[in-house]
Amino acid sequence: MLVAGTFAAAAQTEEGGTNDREAVGSGVKIDYNNPREYVIGDIKVSGNEYQDADRIISYSGLESGMRVTIPSEELSSKLRSMVDRLFFQDIGFYVDSLYAGGDTVSLRINVVERYRVSNWYYHGVKKGEQDDLKEKLNLRRGGALSEYVKTSSVKVIKDYYKEKGFLNVDVDVKTAPDSLVANAVKVTFDVNRGPKVKVQTISYDGVSELAKYKLDKSMKKTKDKSWYNFFHTKKFNEEEYPNDKETLIEAFNELGFRDAKIARDSIYPVEEGRLGIDFKIDQGRKYYFRNISWTGNSVFAAEQLGEILRISKGDVYDLVALNRRLQGGGKEGELSVASLYRDNGYLFFSVTPVETTIVADSVDVEIRLVEGKQATFNNVLISGNNITNERVIRRAVYTRPGYLYSQSDFERSIRELGTMTNFDAEKIVQQGTGWNLMPNQYNNTVDISYNVEEKPNSQLELSGGWGARTFVGTLGINFSNFSTRNFFRKECWRPVPLGDNQNLAIRFQTNGTYYQALSAQFTEPWLTGKKPTSLNISAYFTRQTNSYISNYYAIYNDDRFIEIGGVSVGIGKRLKWPDNYFTLYNSLGAQFYNLQNWYSYYVFTDGRYNNLNYTVSLARTSIDQQIYPRKGSDINLSLQITPPYSLLRKNAKSIDYSTMDDKEHYKWLEYHKWTFTSKNYTKIVGNLVLMTSANFGYLGSYNRKWGYSPFEGFLVGGDGMSGYNTYGNDIICLRGYEDYSLTPYINGAYAGNVYDKFTVELRHPIILQPQSTIFALAFLEGGNCWADIKDFNPFQIKRSAGVGLRIFLSVIGMLGIDWGYGFDAADKSDRSQFHFTIGQQF
Q1: From the CA atom positions of the chain, what is the Rg in Å?
Q2: Most buried pick, 83, 220, 449, 679, via CB within 10 A?
Q3: DSSP readout, 801-831?
Q4: 192 close to 124: Cβ distance less than 8 angstroms
Q5: Over residues 148-168, mean pLDDT
Q6: To the nearest whole percent, how much of the chain has pLDDT over 70?
Q7: 288: which strand partners?
Q8: Three-state DSSP class for 510?
Q9: Which run of H or E residues covers position 410?
């Protein structure tokens, strides 16, 4: 066998006699001390079971007719390259024979193939971690086992656990022959994670102007056990530690310490699983800006650029602020020189600050700009939309072929796709997986690709519940990507026509003769297909009777009932001013309320009452996604009015409504209803989000003599779910209190005409997946409700606090459970409350 250039020759005669290819007999010898050139006659392969012979020959780089020197470094090099392919444990070249004439050889390549892995096993690894490792390692059954596979796999496993804080993880690779498969082994990764290593304490020496809190905050991943790091992980991450040292120096740069550096950092054990870090800082002197000049700018004047830079002579030499205001990367919406240029098409713009002069503690800076030419969008590519029609996506994005490049338009397009419930909002924001920019500086164009991932978002509700001695069943369906365009196309019913981002929702609820409710709603977000003008149509009907088993006897009653029905049609339009996050919504609605001998929830028990109303709403929505927003706000100001019938009557001032029959008094309802809701989302760190909200509502009257409307008021307290409540009121969630318990109850009827509510909620996700999102929350909440605007006091609130959990399933919607403690509940026994919710509550 040949090893590193040593040949073996064997005598071999071909079957079938002698000819010009006949091998020489047993006297053939190779003189290894005197290399000689031969012609390769033929090449054979032996020992191979998995690898194809032709492929092995191609690996060798040898072929018939080739001239080779035997022995030679060339052949040794070819052998080594074959070993490096990791398929073989051993390889040898054999000279089987010499052809007649003695200058042509028959070669044989003998291989010993590596063991094949019949299965991979993991010991000491949790099920979830095992799934992660399988995805990272991507090891396949039947693959060859080599030292490279072992060492690279061990490295991946160790890096995985080090990211989780297990710095002392040990991985042993164990192999065992597989008795069922020839030349195969079973491989087990035996993992000993050891204790998780966390940072106990961090100290700084040589610091004069920065507090420890400021320095700790500057490092994003390296945190100790200080109280203000309560929501941060304390695990030590070796990979992130160098980055955190850079951001630590940036904290000094912000205060003008241009030459600050870490003279020494020491990491030492404190106890098992705990370590300490000591930093020795060399701050250097503090510097200040002196003269700032601009070069290379022709599009914008130096004065305009200076207004964005906001740095004057004598300011602290803050390198971080300088780079942020030049390059961007600050808070959302913060203007920078780079964003100014790139929003005007200058994609290939670059800016470089250069220190030209340093005198004592003063620095002169020259800011050099290369503006380049304006770039335009060329190809806008969309992929992954196997349900949603492409035109639906194209109309949502702000990047169009031929348009000037705009960074703001690009970022807004990502946001618009993220807020569409059809796609995975987590993926679309990721470069590479969700989007790609492909600039071409040669022709000043840029291609952009949006890679969406469809997720199921139609919802089916099939549920039942028992309460108040009765069973209530619910059947509902919500198609969030419906398509009326394809309604009459048979091939599109799979099971219903989808793809146009329309919403169709139908819901039916009943327990038999006691209660029935039917509602339907349809929304078209782009009515004309060219502009984001939405159409909303809804209708509903509910009926509730006293048809129940009276006193547990088989006696049914239906002499009492209440019926409520209505329709509404609305048009919404996206505005351009003050910005294009604003929408204006107008709608017309009609409702009727029909009562017969009904219970005294109102000031009357019989009659038919009507409500014709007009609603106008101004809203601004800038959240980054619907299910788990991390930033942005959702603000809505709404006014609903009816005609002022009492003021239009003859002798309106002299009418005495106190003596008027209720059926005549409230036959046509009149009111003006003001509502305001505001939610703001702020990312604290990572995916930890602070949600703050403020809500206000007021139901007013045109005529004090006519009084407040008996319908359209507010019921405050509880989980905010209506159940089978049909009483024509807005139901306001305020956790920690029983349902409607904060609503004034006067003369046997609810009289909530004014309310306010304030919420602070801290949220953290548990699972963020397209099919399911789960997050935990803790909240502080306060609010109240009054019967008259004259009694309104925004500081007279009922307080509560608690925790909760939200689960979003794409086929069901949002489900939630909260526990709240109402500090101001009238009865102390009612202060602890559990609440179950379906859908988003307000």
Answers
A1: 38
A2: 679
A3: EEEEEEEEETTTEEEEEEEEEETT-SSGGGS
A4: yes
A5: 88
A6: 91
A7: 316, 362
A8: strand
A9: helix 407-419
SS3 237: coil
Q: How confident is the model at residue 560 (pLDDT cuts 50, 70, 90)?
A: confident
What's the average model confidence in pLDDT over 548-567?
68
* Residue whose token pair is 């490096």: 84
Of 292, 361, 289, 294, the residue nearest 319 (C-alpha) = 289
* 534: three-class secondary structure by DSSP: strand
Distance CA(276)–CA(370), nearest Å, equals: 46
* Alpha-carbon gap, residue 455 to 390, rounded angstroms: 16
Which residues, 6+ apart, have CB-to-CB distance to 267 below 8 Å? 275, 276, 277
> Contact at 8 Å (CB) between 104 and 38?
yes
Per the structure block, which two tokens stand in for 101?
Answer: 């004439």
Query: Is there a contact between 812 and 703 (Cβ–Cβ < 8 Å)?
Result: no
Output DSSP code: residue 789: G
Distance CA 507, CA 520 (A): 7
Cβ-based neighbour number of residue 763 at 10 Å? 21
pLDDT exceeds 60 at position 17: no
C-alpha closest to that of 95 among 138, 139, 44: 44
DSSP 346: -
CA distance 586 to 128: 50
451-461 confidence digits (pLDDT tens): 999 987 787 77
CA distance 477 to 522: 12
Is pLDDT larger for residue 102 or for residue 164?
164
Distance CA 498, CA 484 (A): 8
As given in the structure block, the two tokens for residue 812 are 């069901």
| Residue 642 to residues 349, 571, 613, 614, 647, Cα–Cα distance (Å) | 56, 18, 5, 6, 12
How many CA atoms lie less than 13 Å away from 584 in the CB half-sphere? Answer: 5
State the DSSP string of 579-626.
-TTEEEEEEEEEEEEEEES--TTSS-SSEEEEEEEEEEEEEEE--S-S
pLDDT of residue 682: 94
Q: Residue 417, Cα to own-chain centre: how many angstroms?
A: 12
**What is the pLDDT, as a whole number, of residue 491?**
85
Ramachandran area for residue 284 (φ above 0: left; ψ -120 to 50: alpha; else beta):
left
604 CA to centre of own chain: 51
Tell me the residue type at 475. L
